[in-house]
Amino acid sequence: MPEHFDLVIIGTGAGGGTLAYALRESGLRILLVERGDFLPQEPQNWQPVEVFDRRRYKPDETWYGADGSPFHPGVHYFVGGNTKVYGAALPRLRAQDFGALEHEGGTSPAWPITYDELEPYYARAEQIYAVHGAPGEDPTEPPRSGPFPYPAVPHEPYIDDLCARLHKQGLHPFHYPMGIDLREGGRCIRCKTCDGFPCQVLAKSESDVNCVRPALESPAITLWTNTLARRLVTDETGKRVVGVELERGGEHLTVHAERFVVACGAVNSALLLMRSANDRHPGGLANSSGLLGRNYMVHNNTALMAVDPFRRNPTVFQKTLAVNDFYFKGANFAYPMGNIQMLGKLQAGMLTAAQPLVPKPILQGMADRSVDWWVMSEDLPDSHNRVELAPNGKVIVHWKPNNLVAHRKLVDAARKMMREAGYQFVFVQPMGIDTNSHQCGTARFGVDPATSVLDPYCRTHDIENLYVVDSSFFPSSAAMNPALTIAAQALRVAEKLAA
Ligand SMILES: Cc1cc2nc3c(=O)[nH]c(=O)nc-3n(C[C@H](O)[C@H](O)[C@H](O)COP(=O)(O)OP(=O)(O)OC[C@H]3O[C@@H](n4cnc5c(N)ncnc54)[C@H](O)[C@@H]3O)c2cc1C
Q1: Which of 169, 477, 486, 492 lies 20 to 30 angstroms, CA to CA, from 211?
Q2: pLDDT at 325 > cutoff 70
Q3: For a pLDDT cut of 70, what percent of the chain falls above it?
Q4: How far apart are CA 101 and CA 480, in angstroms?
Q5: Which residues of 172-187 are buried (b: 16+ CB within 10 A; e: fewer)?
Q6: What does the pLDDT look like over 18-46, one tens digit per residue?
Q7: What single string gives the DSSP state of each residue in 322-388?
């Protein structure tokens, strides 16, 4: 078994998987390291009780809040990472998200690259992830160099009707860009177990299916599953990483390479670099700025159920529509508020974990008559919100949500929107520390080594052959789903690495 590679990529999610795919014909000999296995295709993939109540696909892992309270993080350790269960909503950020934006709660900082610089990579990422969408419906949409690869996923009749009701209010509901295999002869059967579930028929555009498996067709790419990266080792100068210590099948081994990419997700990437601390890097690798693990963001998220007790919602595939009318401001609010997007159709079994005291038939009755939304606002980088590795190895997440006025305004706007659309009851459930699906920011990129961990190509400022290519690089969280942006930046970094 070779133990020297040109490149080692640790993690196979949206960042690592896309990077491997982009480099599959680069001539580089690449080792992909993944702590998990391929997620099994099994009936339980689509069973709410298994997925939500029994947490079948989540690790038995406990992290702690700053006050010491334990929680189980919403992470997934499989080939494909969190994209195995994601909702496959694949929008681009708005062009303005790349500049500094004033929010009610503070400033959302500018990125070191512009939207125009990332646009060609967005276009490629949309091809790779087979994105379906309809241009021209969303007033906040950034300019595109070409059409969406596939036409929008059509609304089902009930959602079409809701869309018309929203139009009547002067809003601009639009088909949300989605990565599912609805191509001619495609695998997608439009079931209701997409958002939040693994896809049993592999019809979601995930890093596993769309990137890792095709990448493995190249003899230059090797994948080691069930292999945990424990530590990166530098040379004596501390200027180069020379190896990664791995745990594989109960054995410990060190793999050497010319270059290393950490792509473990925003929390685990920061932790790996912290665990790799040595004499030259006492605060963790690539941490001369002191910013590693800081500026952790996850969005402000609220689930909203709008219920019309007199009308059943027969929709099966609900996640087709979004509203961005409040993205940059509201009717009486001059600051950005965020994005409102449909959730996959809620089922009683998905609600029992959050509402264990409510009898299941009542939850089922509500779910049968509800329309379900994810209300999402930008949270701002705050260096006090951070990931900490305690001396005893415990993972501590310091998280104090901010920019909450904007989020409350958005939830109110969503509530009003749905009341006016004819829904008598609106229930909201704010998300807590364990909803870290959109985690980002723990190794922000920038041009100044004093104020960022990574350069604009995600190379660490401190260590010339070490990169972090996952959601860690985000300097701001914007208020759109992150995966397409992670993938686009991975494609941009791949060009640099191949050169
Ligand atoms: C329920 C849910 C729904 C979501 N819906 C959407 C959506 O609709 N649209 C969207 O854009 N985003 C969505 N997201 C978020 C999206 O999935 C993530 O933003 C994205 O996957 C992050 O990519 P990443 O590369 O940063 O990390 P991940 O995808 O988390 O990948 C990290 C990988 O690293 C591996 N790893 C971690 N530590 C180690 C280690 N020490 N050694 C070896 N391997 C390691 C993990 O097993 C994993 O495979 C959702 C997430 C969840 C959980």
Answers
A1: 477
A2: yes
A3: 99
A4: 15
A5: ebbbbbbbbbbeeeee
A6: 999 999 999 999 999 999 999 999 999 99
A7: EE-TTSS-BTTB-S---EEEEPSPP-HHHHTTT-TTS-HHHHHHHHHTEEEEEEEE-----TTSEEE
Ligand 1 centroid – CA 166 distance (Å)? 33
CATH number at residue 306: 3.50.50.60
**Is residue 182 a contact partner of residue 150, using CB atoms and an 8 Å limit?**
yes
Number of domains in the chain: 1
Token couple for 179: 């990565």
Strand partners, 256: 4, 243
CA 159 to chain centre: 25
Encode pLDDT of 85-126 as tens digits.
999 999 999 999 999 999 999 999 999 999 999 999 999 999
Q: Are 191 and 199 in contact (CB under 8 A)?
A: no
Query: Cβ distance 323 to 490 under 8 Å?
Result: no
Q: In the structure encoding, which two tokens stand for residue 238, read together?
A: 């501390």
Residues paired with 233 in a beta bridge? 243
Domain ranges, residue 305: 4-498
Q: List phi, psi (to 5°) of 447.
A: -90, -20
Q: What is the pTM of this model?
A: 0.97
- Pocket of ligand 1, beta carbon within 6 A: 10-16, 33-36, 74, 77, 81-83, 85-90, 196, 228-229, 263-266, 268, 272, 437-438, 470-471, 481-483, 486
Contact criterion met (CB below 8 Å) for 319 and 195: yes
In angstroms, the CA 44 to CA 56 distance is 8
Strand partners, 395: 389
Report the 10 Å Cβ neighbour count for 251. 8
Q: How many CB atoms lie within 10 A of CB 455?
A: 18
Give the mutation target among 55, 72, 86 for probing the ligand 1 site: most ligand atoms within 8 A of CB: 86
**CA distance linking residue 108 with residue 193, whole number of Å:** 35
Task: Tell whether the model's pLDDT for residue 199 goes beyond 70.
Answer: yes
Nearest to 145 by CA among 116, 176, 186, 180: 116
Taking the alpha carbons at both ends of the chain, their separation in whole angstroms is 27
Burial (CB < 10 A; 0-12, 13-18, 19+), residue 102, is exposed
Could you tell me the distance, in angstroms and rounded to a whole number, from the CA of residue 17 to the centre of ligand 1? 10
Q: Looking at residues 402-410, what average pLDDT do you find?
A: 98
Helices (H), 129-287: 157-168, 207, 213-215, 266-275
Distance 369 CA to ligand 1 centre (A): 32
Radius of gyration for the alpha carbons in the chain, expressed in angstroms and rounded:
22
